[in-house]
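new request in #modeling-help
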Amino acid sequence: MAGTAGGAAVGDVTLRRVCAVALLVVLLAGAGLATWRSTGGATASDPVRDLAAGLRCPACQGESVADSRSPIAAAMREVVAAQLAEGRSPDEVRAYFAERYGPEVLATPPARGLGLLLWVVPALVLLTVAVAAMRTHRRSERHRSPAPRSDQPAGRLRVRARTTWNVGALSLVGFVGVIAVIAPPGSEPAPPASAVTDPVAAQLTLARSLEQRGEYATAADVYRTALAQRPVDDIRLRLAFTLVRAGQPTPAEEAARQVLAGRPDEPDALLILGLAQRASGRPAAGSTLRRFLTLAPDHPAAPEVRRLLDAR
Amino acid sequence: MIGTIGTATLAGGLVVASAATLLWLRVALTGSAVRRPARIATGTALLAAVLTCGALEWALLSHDFTVRFVAENGGRHVSTYFTITSLWAALDGSLLLWLLILGGYATLLSRPGPRARAALQSWAMTVVSAVSVFFFALTYFAANPFRTVTAPPDGGPGPNPLLQEHPAMGLHPPLLYAGYIGLVIPFGYAVAALLVGRPGTTWLRAARGWALLSWSLLTAGIALGAWWSYAVLGWGGYWAWDPVENASLLPWLTTTAFLHATLMSRRRPPLAGWDVTLACASFLLVLVGTFLTRSGSVESVHAFTESALGPMLLVFVLVTAVVVVTLIGWRARSVPAATPPSPATGPALSRQTTLLGNGVLLTTLAAVVLIGTVLPLVAQALTGVRTAVGPPYFNRTAVPLAVAAVVLMGIAPLLHWRTGPSREILRRLAVPGYVGLAVVAAVGLASRPGMLTLAAFGGAAFVLTGTGTLLVTRVRRDTTTTWNAVAPTRKPTIGSRIRGLLTRRRAIGGLLAHIGVALVTVGVAASSAYSRTTEREIAVGQTMAIGGTAVRLATVEREGGAAEMRVTAQLVLTTDGKAAGSLRPELRYFPARDMTVSVPGIRSGLLRDRYATLLAVSPDGGRATIRLAVNPLVSLLWAGSGLTVLGGLLAIGRRPRPASAQPATTDQSESPVAVGEVGRR
């Protein structure tokens, strides 16, 4: 075909086209192979890491268990590995963590109940907008344009109406002004009961007495309120200790860690952290408590801790 | 004293803003030409905002701890610069900044404009003034920073330490706010168009420049936020899908879609639905974002109910949404009904279809980000269960959509408006397509970064080649042809070339922005797929390494002060055995707020950043735990964002209109034949 009239020019074009197609085939093959290799890599990946990447580290800010260096994340990775080795399915492992740490430990909520919205809403939006786009496209092909509308605003006010309007507007502005003057500019956030007594001190006394009566959960709430007003380590430790006794080791651990973030060798914080870890059955408990013993061998709680460690 | 003045100016602003709203409403309703009083009222509201901000700055600078905001956020130990910036370091003060910027925009918008837009302008001013009434009321009643403290302290804790780490704190929030709040003007114009009943293109021409300005500022604000997160916060990344980040991304996405919809509407049939909806959605998302980040509801539902602020904002968001939806529904009914569906006659691949496709993608992307951000809140409010939506969700949903959008972004500028791809177009698409495929093949065969990363690299290569070529041709053509038309005999000078470019700057700006986004894509893909990190505890004198990069811990220094304690690790950096400077990551502890900040040490390069964070130091100072990372191509993120902003700013301005080419109201008088011709420019 190329050899007939038209000669070299046509042949040239054909040649170029063949080259282009050949290049395209080669590139497509290369890109296909590259993509296949990239997806193929996923099968070889580490199931423990994959699962841990979908869990949020409870003690950190926005880091996954796979990435976080905190001890709690390390412990969680161990649990993941152990449970997967036992033959549990990833869903069972996730359910286990959700039960222990609350559903917020899962980085993506399960696709049921409200979690379904995460997938349904974007899909609905995609569908609606796509349909709208299609209609727009069709309509635009038919070159429809509405009849030009009148430039006139909706209505014109008569003179008398204008007077009424002016008076009304003035009184409205006056009303706003009066409200602004009369209404207190924002209610003062609950003023302290009396200027003399320190509210935090009162709360601490209350919490102590609650603790003595064994109402640990209520005491913890009061400590939390006090902590919000005076964020100091003493109250935080008190709160953490109460939480351990109230049987809530996870928030206790978090509070203890906050203290440790500022003062890594605070014995009390280490003690509470260790107790909290022990209460949640974390393997790190032993090492934390031992570190506490080396730092404060004469601490009043030291003998008790030694006894606990020996008992294990 | 200052507190009283501040409260008074705030109340005055509330009254004046109400007056301005009513005056503009009157102008709008009567079509009155007398706009002076309304304009004066708008200017006075701005003055009130300026005075209020001034009063709070004065209180901060004079350490007047009787003022509540100063007692909570001021401090004697804070430098003057950070004292000034502490105005926006906490909620109440940042609302004053909001008022100031809103007042500025309102005053700019109230300037006398073209007669053709008078009706639209007065309605838009009514809307903008009403919004400012709400924000004055919100600040005055729910978050007045000037309330007096009954027992003033001797000193304050200073602003949040995170916000004292870097001078960029002076720039980032105002930029972000300026971008955010500027979207009120396109919103105002959209509502005005709905009210006046002319969803033509007049309002679009008026709104487009404002939208571009806000979009550019918002882009700059988001980029600066990402940079701040990377260079100051020291967690190693720049984007965490955090609610605050998402709140700034949401209006950015819809405004991007809006800007592209305006392009389509110029070659219209009416796309009023798209334009109006996207303009309104952008501002609604601004309000939603403000609600999410300013009401404390993200932290906990408990914080939300603590002040009247959250409920007030929520009610305002809902009312605005209802009003907008009603208006759109009302107008949609009054516009002639759509023709019965007929088989699409247009080509499947034209610039219009790709733009529509990108609109669909961007809107869906916004929906994904919105539901991911809001769901934990909704779930907690409805069921009381705390849930979290983290990066895995966004990586699975938003990232593929974004990659697809990047690819479409590369294709669209290469196509004709209405006609399908001709042979010439196919040829134009071929080279970038080959380059894209080649990049995918090369990268994928050399490493295994994963499908999405590969697609991102390929798409970005496609955009860079295609759009780059287009840009070069355009620049070459515009610098010569424009001049030739004026003085064909003389050779173009540099000045004339620049002038030629500037008259065509809209198209060039758009292409530059696309190239910027493609560069950002490369930066994100490379840094998320190829970052390498190691973490170890080393003693002074020891070395740790990753790849060819090694650091030796030279010293650990401690400095103590009443306000701040610092531990600095001095790391000597070597690359492939050669000395390459040093890194100084720090841990800073602020006793007043009981807060530790880890500031990374970064050595930025064109191809990679060396990034070290100090995680912990042993009590004797002999050992330190260091995280060392090598992040490739992060520089492209900042360069690309800069180009995008530049492109957006360049594109502001009126379209050059050859005097005779098109009638002034193309939108109203296009004949079917003309459209095809015009479309093929």
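bot summary: The radius of gyration of chain A is 35 Å.
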